[in-house]
Amino acid sequence: MLALYRFIxxxxxxxxxxxxxxxxxxxxxxxxxxxxxxxxxxxxxxxLGNGTRIWVHAASIGEVRAAGMLIESLKVxxxxxxxxxxxxxxxxxDFARQHLGPEVACQLAPLDVPFSVNRSLALLAxxxxxxxxxxxxxxxxxxxxxxxxxxxxxNGRLSDRSITTYRRLRFxxxxxxxxxxxxxxxxxxxxxxxxxxxxxxxxxxxxxxxxDDIRLPQDPEKIAxxxxxxxxxxxxVDVFIAGSTHNPEEELLFPLISDLxxxxxxxxxxxxxxxxxxxxxxxxxxxxxxxxRLSKLKQGLQRTQPLVLVDTFGDLGExxxxxxxxxxxxxxxxxxGHNAMEPAVWAKVVFFGPDMADFSEAAATLENRGGxxxxxxxxxxGNEISMLQEDRNRLQQIQQLAGAAAREQLGxxxxxxxxxxxxxxxxNKVQT
Length: 432
What we know:
Distance between the termini: 32 Å
């Protein structure tokens, strides 16, 4: 089946390439990074070093953060591994280059077509391929198998929504899953789903969610103090952060935001996708509200408005350090939510809507520990915040419970790093 898939994809690629290139040149659509997607990399593979090369594929910014934790856990290896990180998005690649350091090569992932896959493997020559989460590229995985490069799937998950697709396309994904030497699933439920769609039960283990294995930076108090100074926050002022919001959540939140501002709360609004900024700014102005852009404040301008719009990449994780209340976006828009542990690790009260399908384990853990709360709508969110503003003792108790729940999740990065070391050791034994 994969051989037929390879032929069809390759045929379609070559006959459509002239048209696609013409569209790119005329419209600029996907022009940035196109050469990397075709595996024409600026940096030669030689710059990766001569040691063991580990290729970590991370879809976007969230997975890049997870890759960073994984790499930190593997840096203790002697001699040290050499790391290449690929992403699917340009923003993810730029974030990786900024946050993973110059010793980690960061590129866009090749298109899953024979030309790009073969060229990338010839140039990069990985000793191990690690796929973070469940972004399966059939041609790439099959080509790695044929070249006897061991492959791992870690932090693997199959949601209730995606399992239907995998069941329907089991004929395609079953051989792909069987190509992985090991699969590290987030939960027992994910393990069973992988087995259901074709994975070898003996190769699927549960390791927890590396995205929940979040550690505070070395100087959390200093980080919070820096953001408080940059935003000119008084110690007694509450801060409400709506993080990683999706359409139409901002519009739903506007009445609450207006009410909180009237009560003296500073509000920080961080949309998930910054390409929506122009529309979002128009909506804010339409509500008669005024705001400051975070990018301008970082350039040294003084905050003049109680509403701050986050128009920068990579700052939300640290901004949570100054929050009093956090709403996790994507949970009222049917988008599956986002990681509630990111604010919880800072010991913040976390709220989320009814749809946390993509982070159900984290949401359930916070609810069970009393550090996070599901709200059915914005009205309920506003009521919960009002009650906590009036009961500061309960607020502090919940903050402590949220921080404790987040600390309980530590350890997934080390478990997944152990899988990588195990895989490389087994591979070396086979070769010798």
